[in-house]
């Protein structure tokens, strides 16, 4: 992992510079008579390739940002989506690995020089890579298969540097994923990075959620075996990654994965007092026995009282076309700033389409539906855009909003049909009158 700020900044700066040079080159080709659609396709493919190469090689905050972006690819118009879809999806599960020597050195620093005695076997080849660490497979001394998560050397220095620099280029990424607020996403990622860097905190989160779902027939959360600030050892879990189901799964698999994903996100705050705050397909798998395996608890929202009841009331009022109570609750919760003048009916018109999945017994989440929402709220000349600019996102709802948007993005990638209203009725406080 490149650690020097100057080197990392130079690589990140290559993204907008590369886009600019390709635009100029594209103009030249079109003037020379080449087909415009072909030129645009070539530019999109090369931009996507560069995006993956730079963010993936840098890992750290750059790759974490890429993973966060990837769940919103369903909002990208179809004519632009294909190359970005492939590149961003790669960031969910892949990155160039650190050397074997570096991995051994980190384990020795964290678990002690005699760390090998704690393992019956240890595979030097990484089984998976992530934004701030990579995972190796091993056998614990008691015979249990385990996953050994090792933080990249220099990850702490790189994370904050990346996120500061990415904020400077937020307008570029805004163009890649229309309808997504990039600056707030980067700000929220920056706030919780310090938590993700401490694997002891992640271990504590994982232990709590694993205990809450221990023996559950629908979910499998691996138990923690050992932990240190930069190494985490958990029981090994395996299954079909959601990324593979998105790519080639049957409709039955898509619907089941979508149902379990929604069930987990809505039930975890009530059952464990936490909301899994890293909703990308690399963190969820379908096991052979039908359970959903859930991993990576570095980022969570602590919700000891469960999801906030006003959120359920907002859903209910929006569904019932109750503009006045909707607006009043939004004002009480801080979504409408004091002194802001915006008609209640405009606010209802802005929010009502988002609760469409709750109006029927079953709803199919599609890319087309999500693209329509992104186009609606992102249309600079539309009323919904102006209304959205008048609203505020209170700090206590920031992470909940991002997780809900991210998990909805995955449901749309899955093209899953599920009883969303039934799940919300069971787990969302305030939803029932």
TrEMBL record:
<protein>
    <submittedName>
        <fullName>ABC transporter ATP-binding protein</fullName>
    </submittedName>
</protein>
<dbReference type="GO" id="GO:0016740">
    <property type="term" value="F:transferase activity"/>
</dbReference>
<dbReference type="InterPro" id="IPR004147">
    <property type="entry name" value="ABC1_dom"/>
</dbReference>
<dbReference type="InterPro" id="IPR051409">
    <property type="entry name" value="Atypical_kinase_ADCK"/>
</dbReference>
<comment type="similarity">
    <text>Belongs to the protein kinase superfamily. ADCK protein kinase family.</text>
</comment>
<dbReference type="Pfam" id="PF03109">
    <property type="entry name" value="ABC1"/>
</dbReference>
<dbReference type="InterPro" id="IPR034646">
    <property type="entry name" value="ADCK3_dom"/>
</dbReference>
<feature type="domain" description="ABC1 atypical kinase-like">
    <location>
        <begin position="90"/>
        <end position="326"/>
    </location>
</feature>
<dbReference type="InterPro" id="IPR011009">
    <property type="entry name" value="Kinase-like_dom_sf"/>
</dbReference>
<dbReference type="GO" id="GO:0005524">
    <property type="term" value="F:ATP binding"/>
</dbReference>
<keyword id="KW-0067">ATP-binding</keyword>
<keyword id="KW-0808">Transferase</keyword>
<keyword id="KW-0547">Nucleotide-binding</keyword>
């Amino acid at each position: 992992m490149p650690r020097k700020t100057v080197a990392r900044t130079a690589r990140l700066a290559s993204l907008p510079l590369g886009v600019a040079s390709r635009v100029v080159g594209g103009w030249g080709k079109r003037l020379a008579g080449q087909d415009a659609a072909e030129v645009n396709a070539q530019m999109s493919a090369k931009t996507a390739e560069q995006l993956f190469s730079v963010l993936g090689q840098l890992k750290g905050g750059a790759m974490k940002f890429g993973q966060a972006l990837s769940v919103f690819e369903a909002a990208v118009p179809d004519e632009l989506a294909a190359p970005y879809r492939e590149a961003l999806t790669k960031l969910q599960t892949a990155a160039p690995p650190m050397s074997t020597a570096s991995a051994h050195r980190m384990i020795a620093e964290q678990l002690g020089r005699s760390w090998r005695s704690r393992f019956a076997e240890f595979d030097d080849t990484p089984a998976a890579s992530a934004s701030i660490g990579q995972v190796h497979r091993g056998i614990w001394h008691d015979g249990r298969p385990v996953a050994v998560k090792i933080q990249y050397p220099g990850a702490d220095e790189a994370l904050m540097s990346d996120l500061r620099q990415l904020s400077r280029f937020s307008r570029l990424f805004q163009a890649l994923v229309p309808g997504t607020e990039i600056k707030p996403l980067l700000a929220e990622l920056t706030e919780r990075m310090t938590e993700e860097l401490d694997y002891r905190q992640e271990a504590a989160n994982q232990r709590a959620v694993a205990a809450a779902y221990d023996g559950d027939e629908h979910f499998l959360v691996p138990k923690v075996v050992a932990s240190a600030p930069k190494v985490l050892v958990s029981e090994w879990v395996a299954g079909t990654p959601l990324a593979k189901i998105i790519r080639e799964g049957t409709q039955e698999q898509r619907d089941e994965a979508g149902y379990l994903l929604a069930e987990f996100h809505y039930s975890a705050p009530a059952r464990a007092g936490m909301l899994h705050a890293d909703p990308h397909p690399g963190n969820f798998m379908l096991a052979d026995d039908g359970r959903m395996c859930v991993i990576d608890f570095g980022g969570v929202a602590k919700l000891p009282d469960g999801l906030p009841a006003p959120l359920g009331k907002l859903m209910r009022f929006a569904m019932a076309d109750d503009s006045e109570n909707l607006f009043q609750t939004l004002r009480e919760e801080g979504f409408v700033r004091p002194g802001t003048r915006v008609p209640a009916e405009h606010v209802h018109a802005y929010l009502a389409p988002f609760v469409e999945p709750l109006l029927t017994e079953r709803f199919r989440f599609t890319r087309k539906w999500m693209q329509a929402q992104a186009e609606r709220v992102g249309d600079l000349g539309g009323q919904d855009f102006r209304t959205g600019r008048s609203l505020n996102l209170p700090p206590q709802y920031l992470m909940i909003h991002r997780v809900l948007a991210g998990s909805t993005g995955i449901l749309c990638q899955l093209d899953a049909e599920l009883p969303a209203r039934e799940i919300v009725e069971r787990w969302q406080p305030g939803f029932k009158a």
